Each structure stands twice: as structure tokens, then as C-alpha cells.
Amino acid sequence: MHGILNYEELVEPLADQIIIRHLKKSVHIDWTITTAYLDSCQQNFEQTRLLNIDFKVVQQSLHQDLKVWKEQVITEYKNRYRKLINWLSENLHEYDIDRNYLIQLCVTDPRPSFVKNIARQLSKSEPTWALKGDGIDTNKPIVLRNILGNEDLITHRLTNNLPMWFIDSGYTNFLTGKKTWHRLVKNHMHHDIAGQHFPADRLGMFPEFPRKWNTDGKKILVVESSRQHYRMMDTARDRWKFFLSKEISKYTDRPVEFKDKSDSKKTRTTVYELLKDNPNDYYCVISESSVAAIEAIWLGIPVITLRQHISAPVARTKIEDINDLYRGPVGDWLCALSYCQFTKAEMLDGTAAKITKKFYHV
Questions:
Q1: What SS3 state is found at 76?
Q2: pLDDT tens digits in sequence order for the chain, 362 residues long
Q3: In 197-342, beta strands by DSSP E
Q4: How far apart are the C-alpha atoms of 36 and 61, rounded to whole Å?
Q5: Burial letters for 128-144: b for 16+ Cβ neighbours within 10 Å, e otherwise?
Q6: pTM score, whole prediction
């Protein structure tokens, strides 16, 4: 088993060392409150010749000074840590730091991480640790997280049917606005749940269920994918848009809108946010293999999913079916969906690996 470490998790222990060194030099305890009280006691002694120190007040003053210092440390840490992680990740290759030392520092670090924990859960012995771009033994399965930077490795694995465990964000995080859920997929980036049956005991994870199917919409929304996705598909976004538009026009004259995918997650608007106030305006949503399909289904908008994706059982998978969209039951599919995403705790404690092994015949 190979565990492919992300640069971000690789540099975390190094960032800790740098931040701790910085905090020791720049953030010192200032005993302002305690000193002020003791000074007042000293002044009173000089005036009355009576030394009256209330040690309860001293203790309270010490606690207050320590609290102020702790808040300063936390603030400085928060202001610098994430920026330092990002900078080290982007610039590490420019510095002569021994990669084996960094890997050893990372894998012996006690903090849990998805790649480290899951690779160890799935392997009978300690995994072989590597960085993206390293030469990987094709006979060994790999565990990796995210597409970015791993495009060539994933493409090679999929093309040659080589074993892979893929970790990424879950499917319904749009319901909470947070990274509540994560997915673990065997031998692909997206689950294939066709023909499988799942219990209903995890349905409580969803704070709400999909709306009834809409039948009144007129517009078609096509959701574009990331640059990394088109690179893996050996095409380009404009070329894909041209041929897809041509294909849609063969079967319908409904108006078509394209939604681009911003490179920045901070500025990216989800389909759920875009359409939640007027879902009845849309006839369907088309995507390759995007969580946008899940968001559309939650709004009651039928979908067409063109590549392997968990939405396939409640979608159409070919443009030629655009006039015969799926508007059937979604109960069994929701059960399956609940068994394809996991909390952070479940990813780290072995629950995700255990469920995936059991239900995906690993």
C-alpha cells in the first residue's frame, strides 16, 4: 500500500516548529495586572508601613495575565499558521530540505490525517509513503486525497485499471455550508452504486430531504467542470462546450445556460445557492460527474449525468434522453448516498474503511 501525502499535510510538522520558534521570540507573558496589584501593595506599605497582600487577588491576577497571554498566542497562531502552510506547500521545492526527513516528520506526527489513517487501516503493514509525482509501484494500491496535483496519477490508475482509494469532499456539504462529509471511493473518483442495496439507518445525516420533482421548468443548466477534470478527459472546456451544445440542439430547442466553475472555492457559487430561489425555472441540470447533480436533485430539478457518478440511479446518463427525464422515487438512492459519505471522525476511526469494504465488495 502506498500512501500519497499531500504537501499541506507534509509541511504541517515543519510549520509547527517554525511557529513555535516564532511565538517564543515574539509573544511574551506581560504580568501587567499582577504587577499593578503588587505595586499598589508596595505603595500602601510605604505609606502605612503595613504589608497587606491578598494572595487570592494575586492568584486571580496571575490567571488574568495568563489568559491574556494565551489569547495573544492563539491569535498570533491563527493569523500565521494557515498562511505559513500555504506558503510552504507552494515554495517547498525551492529549498534544499531533505524530503525523506519531511516524510518521516509527517508520518510520525501524532496528529491524525485522512491519508495516514486510512492507508494504515487498509494495509496489513506500515504503508510506503510517497509524494505526488514520485514513482509509484503499479502493483500496489494507493491512497490519495483530492484531484489537484494528482491528475496524471489518477488517469493512469483509471486507464490501466489499477487499484486506488480516493478521498475527497462528500456529496451533501451544501446542506450545512461546511465540510461536514467526506467520501472514500474504491478504484474511482465517484461511487458506482448500481444494483446495490443499503440500509436506512444513516438517513438521519441529512438535515432535509429532496423536494418533489419539478415539471414546469423551461431552461437547461449545463454545469462546467474544473480544468483538472478536462485535462484528465484529454479535452478542453471550450471544445467540450461546443460539442455538448451541438448534441443538445439535436433533441431540444429549450434555452441552454452554462455555469462556469471558478478555480477559487472562496468565490465559487454552488448550483444549490444559484437555483434555490427559483428552481421551477429549470427543466434539468446537465453535468459530467459533479456534486451539482446532487444539489439539483435536492431542489427537485431532474439531472443528466454523463460520466460515472453516484447520481446515476436517479438521473439520465445520455443527452438523447433529455425529453424523458427521471422523476421517480429517490428513497433507495438516499440510503445509498448515506453510505457513501462520512464525518471526519468516521474517516479517522476506521468506520469509513469498514463500511466501504463491506458494501463495495473490497
A1: helix
A2: 999 998 888 899 999 999 999 999 999 999 999 999 999 999 999 888 888 899 999 999 999 999 999 999 999 999 999 999 999 988 887 878 888 889 999 999 998 999 999 999 999 899 999 887 777 777 789 999 988 888 888 888 988 999 999 999 999 999 999 999 999 999 999 998 887 889 999 999 999 999 999 998 999 999 988 777 777 777 788 888 899 999 999 999 999 999 887 655 665 688 999 999 999 999 999 998 889 999 999 999 999 999 999 999 999 999 999 999 999 999 999 999 999 999 999 999 999 999 998 887 54
A3: 219-223, 256-259, 282-287, 303-305
A4: 9
A5: ebbbbeeebeeeebbbb
A6: 0.83
Instruction: Return the SS3 of 25.
Output: helix
Helical residues (DSSP H) of the chain, grouped into ranges? 7-26, 32-48, 55-91, 99-107, 114-122, 151-159, 227-232, 237-249, 271-275, 292-298, 331-338, 344-349, 351-359
Q: Write out the three cell numbers for 64.
A: 488574568
* CA distances to 1, 30, 88, 177 from 143, in Å: 8, 47, 23, 27
Q: Which of 33, 95, 42 is nearest to 65 (CA)?
A: 33
Domain ranges of the chain: 8-100, 219-338
Q: Left (φ > 0), alpha (ψ -120 to 50) or beta: where does 181 sit?
A: beta
| Look-up of cell digits 490501466 | 160
User: What is the rounded distance in angstroms from the CA atom of residue 278 to the CA atom of residue 263?
Assistant: 25
Calculate Rg over the CA atoms of the chain: 27
Whole-angstrom distance, CA of residue 78 vs CA of residue 5:
24
The class level of CATH for 219-338 reads: alpha beta
